[in-house]
Amino acid sequence: MLRKHSVTIRGHATSYSVEDAFHDELRAIAARRGVALARLVAEIDAARPPATNLSSAIRLFVLREVRSGQSAVG
Predict the structure, then answer these.
(1) How many Å apart are CA 45 and CA 49, to the nearest integer?
(2) Which end of the chain is less crowded, N or C, counting CB atoms within 10 A of the terminal residue's CB?
């Protein structure tokens, strides 16, 4: 199910909408890295191309992580 999530990035409140499976994996990646979910989302936000919205950037990040088995932003 697609759900909306709120987060504060660099002092700015924003939201993103992703399916539960993507959000669960995003939380797992943050936990493996030992960082807060908001920090990981901020890293993804900073690395995304300007034409890519945050929700899409998160999905693409999770997909790359799952495919590679690594934990690298970008």
Answers:
(1) 9
(2) N
